Prior knowledge:
Strand content: under 5%
Strand order of the largest sheet: 1-2
Number of domains: 1
Amino acid sequence: MSSLEYLALMGACLLITLPLELVFSARVYRRWKVLIGSLIPIVLVFSLWDIVAIARDHWTYNPKYVTGIHLGDLPLEEVVFFIVIPICALLSYEAVGTVLEFFAKKAKSRKGGHDGA
């Protein structure tokens, strides 16, 4: 495992979930203000949590597996994780909602089409 694999994995997560925005109209990236507003508390809370855990020696990051770039006490990869994974979760959630809405409308139109005939 190289020092860039963690970042490559985060990039792969974004690439794999990108079709959810494009094909299923998840509208996560299109509503970028809402996305940023959703990410800020997540990044802040979990970054603080990690900083405290690192300071208390609850966990560490092996230098072999990170780039060595730190944002404060946190490795860059950890901050990227706190951004990427919630985006992937939001994309998945919104795409599932879009698909469920589609099937609900389709079922309703079928049911409505047979009432008066």
